[in-house]
Amino acid sequence: MAVMEGCEGSSKTMVLEERICPECGKEVEVYTLRGRIAEDAACECGYVFKAQEQIPRSFDKK
Ligand SMILES: [Zn+2]
């Protein structure tokens, strides 16, 4: 899957980002979608980065 820059339309492109675990300070790779955590990601120490819900601006119609 390629990351298309400048193409922030309606495509859902998840980006793998490194976040620092607040518990142990390790870097944890989490999938993010436009800056929000898209999927739960667990650290080795057991801390879980919870997926953050996006605020729906309106109901999407396909
Ligand atoms: Zn940790």
Structure in a nutshell:
It contains no helices and 5 strands.
Would you mind describing this structure in some detail?
- The protein has a domain at 15-49.
- The chain has no helices and five strands.
- It has strands at residues 15-20, 27-33, 36-37, 41-42, 48-49.
- A hairpin with a 2-residue loop joins strand 2 and strand 3 (36-37).
- The chain is elongated.
- The mean pLDDT is 83.
- Bound molecules: zinc ion.
Which percent range fits the helix content? Answer: under 10%
- What is the tally of beta strands? 5
Mean pLDDT: 83
Note the beta-strand portion: 25-35%
Query: Ends: how far apart?
Result: 22 Å
- The neighbouring-strand order within the major sheet is 1-2-3
Distinct small molecules bound, one entry per kind:
zinc ion
